[in-house]
Design a protein that fits this description.
About 55% of the residues lie in helices and about 10% in strands. It is mainly alpha-helical. It has two domains: about 10-90, no CATH class; about 105-135, no CATH class. Helix 2 (about 25-30) packs across helix 3 (about 35-40) and helix 4 (about 45-70) packs across helix 5. The protein is flat, with a radius of gyration of 25 Å.
């Protein structure tokens, strides 16, 4: 895309509002990339706040439509809701392990040195391994 500029803040506010804060749509309107719009918005706290509010508002609208579909008996929507919001009641397809008591877990990050074939690979592994240890609090 060309490097066209956004004419002014008022025009950007109007286009963002009309597109629910969608920066890609605003970029297409002005003939520039989403990144140009994002840079313009990122520099202005009021525009950042506007985009955040527009995004939240659109999420609320989507959520209202989801609830409406659930009330109509849409099975896919019901399943989606229960998998995302009903996990604490056991509606999940993945196994989640919950510790019985708080504990610390140590995880060592890095490549194992015993699987390295030659000396050059071994030296490279030593340089890249900063002996990262992550303590995860459960």
């Amino acid at each position: 895309m060309s490097r066209k500029k956004i004419p002014n803040k008022a025009a950007l506010i109007e286009v963002l509002s009309a597109n629910d804060g969608n920066m890609a749509a605003a970029g297409r309107y002005f003939g520039c990339s989403r990144q140009v719009v994002w840079q313009y918005v990122d520099k202005d706290p009021k525009l950042r706040e506007l985009c955040a509010e527009l995004s939240e508002s659109f999420t609320d609208e989507c959520e209202a439509q989801l609830f409406e579909k659930i009330r109509e008996g849409d099975t896919a929507c019901i399943i989606f809701y229960m998998k995302t919001r009903g996990r604490d009641r056991g509606y999940s397809e993945r196994l989640e392990l919950m510790p019985l008591a708080p504990q610390q877990i140590e995880v060592e990050l890095g490549s194992p040195t015993n699987q390295i074939e030659n000396e050059d690979d071994h030296t490279q592994a030593q340089l890249s391994d900063t002996t990262a240890i992550a303590l995860l609090e459960q």
